[in-house]
Each structure stands twice: as structure tokens, then as C-alpha cells.
Design goal:
2 domains, binds S-adenosyl-L-homocysteine, binds iron/sulfur cluster, 32% helix, two-stranded antiparallel sheet, ten-stranded mixed β-sheet, TIM Barrel
Amino acid sequence: MIETKPSLYDFSLKELMQEIQPSFRAKQIFNWMYHQYADDFDDMKNIPNALKVELSQKYIVNPLNIVNKEESTDGTIKYLLQMQDGKTMEAVWLKMKDAQTDENGEVFQEAKYTICVSTQVGCKVGCTFCLTAKGGFTRNLTAGEIVAQVVTLKKDNNHKRNRKINIVYMGMGEPLDNLTNLAKAIEVFKEDEGLCIGAKRQTVSTSGLSNKIDKLGEMDLGVHIAISLHAVDDELRTELIPMNKAHNISSIIEAVKRFPIDTRKRVMFEYLVIKNKNDDISSAKKLVKLLCDIKAKVNLIYFNPYPGTPYDRPTKSDMLAFQEYLINHGLLCTIRDSKGIDISAACGQLKEKVEGEI
Ligand code: SAH
Ligand code: SF4
């Protein structure tokens, strides 16, 4: 058995002040973690040695190591991160907008980034199009392992604490299947003395566990949700996402209607487009009907193929026709540009490539 220690990233500042005495030391340590991105007690210059030795027997600071990194030409960087027990998972650094410069080449608006984080090693949901599902479920990530992904990627990209960043829980795993640790991580991200990432900058993507959507709503954390819908009838959705049998389309739609959202915002529905499966106009028609009384926006995603998959990527013209139909019928609809397509950036694909596990 490998010995693992709790990470300091598991704790809110208040909790850390209970763990570490005197409490002003906890504040200093919190500052080292979130302002300086210190990975280790050794890096914390103003903390007495005796306290560092005592703490390092009980805790680890950053529980993650970067074991592989692939950079795409579009600025996307995909990380394979290893945890204390040797297990690995992925996090992705996404460049959403280039820096804006004026005529003198001075930057007047910095580039915008989003970090895509994992919540589990593997996944129980078992979607037939998803590589993460192939290896089955290994374990939940701790809150600290979720938080440390953002710290690690910000540090690696020299992205200072006060620069804004968005988080999407769209990496490996089903976030709502690890709700306690997810909720803790969301709260730790919000901490004023920490990374100060507001709930509105955090989006939880779910395959649609409708009872857990309700639970997340009841927690009233203020986060956005994105629903991985992918199909408009239960037969196809169950083929793609087997747990649709227990949480069918209408139960998801009802749960979304109950979910507390900012009245100015819309709920995102992700629709993975697979050639000859769900890329026809009659599906688009049904989608419009399904979402007619929800403040929704749709994000169409090209299926990203990998060796051994039975599914194919749709053609660009079918994708555009699908989008056009939705827009003409009053739905907001974007096509997710295939960020990092040259580095196998769909969920689970770097892990597969590096470890050849599955
Ligand atoms: N479990 C959550 C979040 C992680 S998956 C969920 O399912 O929503 C994040 C997104 O990646 C989902 O929308 C999922 O449908 C998508 N995805 C999985 N495999 C894919 C593939 N091969 N190509 C494109 N998108 C994929
Ligand atoms: Fe799990 Fe999401 Fe992959 Fe489905 S798409 S298996 S829910 S990670």
C-alpha cells in the first residue's frame, strides 16, 4: 500500500486555521499556496522549520506531478497528472481568446484561458463514445486533487493568481458522481484569500444524473451547469449513455427547470454530433421542441474519433446545417471548435496514448 497524506488543498482557509497553530501561520501558508504556488513546505521561506517538519509528517502541499504535457498549435495544452497513489488523470489548459494588441503592439487585453479539470479517475457512467469509460471506474478525486489541478496549470503557465480564469468540470469522470468533493472544491476556489474564482466562472458538465442535478441546485453554490444531452430520444440516448435508463431525458429536463440559474444566464446543452446517428435535421427539429420552454443554449461538439470506436465524425456541412436549423428556430447555438485536435484533446485520450492502458 502506498502511503498517501491529505493535501493542504483539501482545506478552506478557516479549516486550515483550525489545523495549523498559531493561525496566522495558516494564513501565511495559504498565501504560499495560492499566491506563490509553492508545491512544497521547503518553498515556504517565512515558516519556521520545526512547523514545516511537523506539518510535512501529516500533510502534502501539492499532491500532483506533471508526467506528460502535449501542446497544440492553437495554444491548448493537455496535461497528464500523477497523484500520490500513482494513478493519473488529465487536465487541459485552453486558450479561449488571443491577447489583443493596439497599433503599437501594446497588449490592451490579455489572452483568456479556461482550465478543464477532472473529477474522477475513470467513470462509472460508461458512455459508449467516451474513452474515459473504457477503463471503468477507479476512484473519486479528493477536493485537494481537484483544486491542485488549477494551481498546477496556472503555475506551469506562469498565470498569476489575480488573472481571471474559468473552470469547466469537463475532464475525466462524472462530477455529480463525486458531489461532496466537487462542492468542496467549488467553495475552495471561491475563497477570497485563495484563487478567488467566483461560482459564475465555474461550469459543471454532467451526463445528466437528474437527482444529483437537484442536489447540486439545493446546495445553491451559484455554479453554471452544462448538460451532456447528445440525443433527443431515449432509445439512442440509452445506447450512448447507458444510465439514461435510470435518468431519462424528461427527468433531466424537469431537473434543469428546477435548477437555480441566474436569470440573465442560459443552461448549456452539449450535443455530441455523431455521423449517421444524431446529425440529421429531424433530430434538430426534436431538439428545438425539447428545449422550447427552457432558457437554453446548445453547444454542438464534433465526435472526436479514437482507434477502435464504432462511431464517426460528422461532416462539416451536416454540422453547419444542424446549427443553422437550430438558429433559425430561435435557439442559441455554437459549434465547439475542436481545440487541440492535433493532440487528442477529447476526454481520456492523452492518458490512453501515454499509458496504453485500455
Ligand atoms: N462526465 C461529464 C463531464 C466529462 S465528459 C459529462 O459527460 O458531461 C466532458 C465532455 O466530453 C462531455 O460532453 C462528453 O460528451 C465529451 N466527450 C467524451 N468523449 C468524446 C469524444 N470522443 N469526442 C468528443 N467529445 C467527447
Ligand atoms: Fe463519464 Fe462523461 Fe465519459 Fe460519459 S462522457 S463516460 S459521463 S466522463
